[in-house]
Amino acid sequence: MKTLNKELQSSITPRKALDLLKEGNNRFINNLKAHRDLLEQVNDTRDGQWPFATILSCIDSRTSAELIFDQGLGDIFSVRIAGNIVNTDILGSMEFACKVAGSKLIVVLGHTKCGAIKGACDHVEMGNLTELLSKIQPAVYQEKTTLENRNASNSTFVENVAEINVKRNVKNIIERSFVLEQLIESGQIGIVGAIHNIDTGQVNFYDDVTFINDEENKNFSLKNLNY
Ligand SMILES: [Zn+2]
User: Fold this and answer.
1) Looking at residues 207-219, what average pLDDT do you find?
2) Which residues line ion ligand 1, judged by CB < 5 Å?
3) Superfamily grouping for domain 6-115+161-211
4) How much is the pLDDT for 204?
């Protein structure tokens, strides 16, 4: 697997970036890891980095973006925080990754059986965690299909909240970052939400929160974002 350089990065479109991640996850779940000499990649990246994607995922030890998408050094920016939530510092990191460092796709990646989502479902309060979980609470309230057992013991409820949380955070990024919104509108970058199933390793991308302004997407409009 070749280490990315400036030329390679600029040849990758947002849709190609999405395909590269899908292919990488496919390799991961089929145990067909691409051959990489990581030490050689240390040398290849010593003078700079040209990652093609920026992935916001959870701190969960089972969800390392580099591993589940089978990526090497210099391939992706990895932003990790419990419950894959968004705050100002994370938006700033993403603006750097896309506007300054040229990354082509933002992925908001949730996962099944997420402890942070479960904590929010149970309205857990503890130290600084209380404030973090409060950022997931809107997704808990937005889940309207579960009428009974609206708590962490109900896995259907938990997974519904995880999905809503991903989609809300795609919307959050677009609404709260003028820099990223402009890049998405102009087709320079794309944004997509996805969920990682920790039972299988498989990542499923949500079509209804895939915003890539290119020829393949005739109906592109950020107004289609209803979360
Ligand atoms: Zn988690």
Assistant:
1) 93
2) 58, 60, 114, 116
3) Carbonic anhydrase (3.40.1050.10)
4) 98
